[in-house]
Automatic annotation (TrEMBL):
Keywords: Glycosyltransferase, Transferase. This is Glycosyl transferase, group 1 domain protein. It comes from mine drainage metagenome. One of its GO terms (molecular function) is glycosyltransferase activity. Its EC number is 2.4.-.-. Residues 1-67 form the Glycosyl transferase family domain. InterPro entries: Glyco_trans_1. Pfam families: Glycos_transf_1.
């Protein structure tokens, strides 16, 4: 469960996708893009307790599914070298 109110990239969502584990996350930052097409993921509205509860219950009752692997774009963006380059090239 990843109930962020404000999120930039969401490395935890990338990790969940890479591992193929079930995840309920809020629609903030890049999370919808990261989890797009993942069958064991539900994206809900931030600050919605009802949506979060319903998403959790839905995943608990669902069967495991084969998840699509991350797209090459998501894999590239989650690579540590990309992160280091982004920090080093950040305007000062």
């Amino acid at each position: 469960v990843y109930p962020s109110i404000n999120e930039g990239y969401g490395i935890n969502a990338v990790e969940a996708r890479l591992l193929g584990i079930k995840i309920v996350a809020t629609r903030t930052g890049a999370i919808p893009e990261i989890l797009d097409g993942m069958q064991n993921a539900i994206v809900v509205e931030p600050k919605s307790e009802d949506d979060l509860r319903d998403g959790i219950l839905s995943l608990i009752s669902s069967r495991p599914a084969d998840n699509n692997p991350c797209s090459p774009e998501v894999m590239d963006k989650s690579d540590l070298r990309h992160t280091i380059d982004a920090y080093l090239n950040f305007p000062r």
